[in-house]
Design brief:
alpha+beta; 4-stranded mixed beta sheet; 5 helices; 4 strands; DCC1-like
Amino acid sequence: MTDIDAAPVLLYDGVCGVCNRAVQAILRFDRHGTLRFAALDSDFARAVTQRHPELRDIDSMVFVENPGRPDERVSIRSSAALRVVSYLGGPFRMLLAARLIPAALRDRLYDRFAAVRYRLAGRHDSCPVPAAEVRARFLEA
């Protein structure tokens, strides 16, 4: 495996307007330029779910570290969001203070927001095609 194969991957709801806007914001602020993306309904995501059966039926962002390696780790819901914040670094690190909130409460808030996300920003008929300059960072794009 190459270093890029070990780069983290963010699994997201490809048809969700909020999720797609979040991915675009991450791309804009990503100083490392290594975070990759895959839709939750992609073959890549299905392979991750096979390795982590607890992800079955998860409709949440999933942050995958060291994908496909023996030390692969997955974070879901608010923990995945905090992994993204940690990855972005810089001024975003202030948001890591949310770790002081118990995970169960953070996840409850995350789930409540996720339940209304389509009403807030709509739903695409299919996963939007990424811009040419970032397409390589999207698995199966």
